[in-house]
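FIELD: query
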Amino acid sequence: MPDLSQSQMKRLTAIHGWSAVILGLLLYAVIVTGAVAVFAEEIGRWSAGTLRTLPAMEGPVDARIRALAEQVAPEHREDVSAWNAEGGDMHVFFHTHRLNPETGLDEDFGTIFRVGPAGEAIERHDGFVWQDPRNYDVSALRRFLVDLHVQLYLPDPWGLLLTGVLGLMMMAAVVSGLLMHRHIIRDLFVAERPGKRLVSARDRHVLAASWGLPFAFVLAFTGSFFSFASTIGFPLVAAVAFGGDQEAMGETLFEPPVPEDARRVPQANLDRLLADSR
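FIELD: result
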């Protein structure tokens, strides 16, 4: 690695120090909530106030979903989704697709149920249900921790942009620290100084930072990538390659359209399908 002049070292020190100062408090919030959010499922189950641990999809669901289908408008039966909720409850979403006047996008529109252990509908919400997390997530605590980690509880897209910038700043701190401490390999194995202790707090800082560099870089890179992907990356790809049509981009990259078969056939038994999938 080439030697750095005194002025270059001074600039790197300033970049390294100020990026760390600005980064520090916000990064603490992101990292601490991220560590807690690893247990989001357990937190959601605990905060939902239920002791049931058997997922609803492990039991009979066919008759329950058929009964719920009779309670919704026929046009909402175009698609149906079902998934486990906290505490053994189940969410069932009957929906079609409509243009959302608020976003200008074609979005899911229909009726979502939260179904209890006995098959009763505990909650029902109609409309563009994804706009309000309370329609499909009963754990406010889990939602708070995840939102704080992902976007610091700021509105879209500013929260994601901020966490993306924080990731870039963290990478700047990692790279500038690596350039400043070119003896990085030696620092990984710093021996105790005379007196059976490290000579200064700076030694402790360098030693801890040296061992944490790979993790810090991966954390910063992946965090900024995921933050910028939906706010900048995908819209740019859609604008350049798909004429701004994000739905066409999504179908091409993630979910190719399946040819529709309009023939009427008997509806499959969902319980048998689930049993075959296990």
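FIELD: remark
The mean pLDDT is 81.
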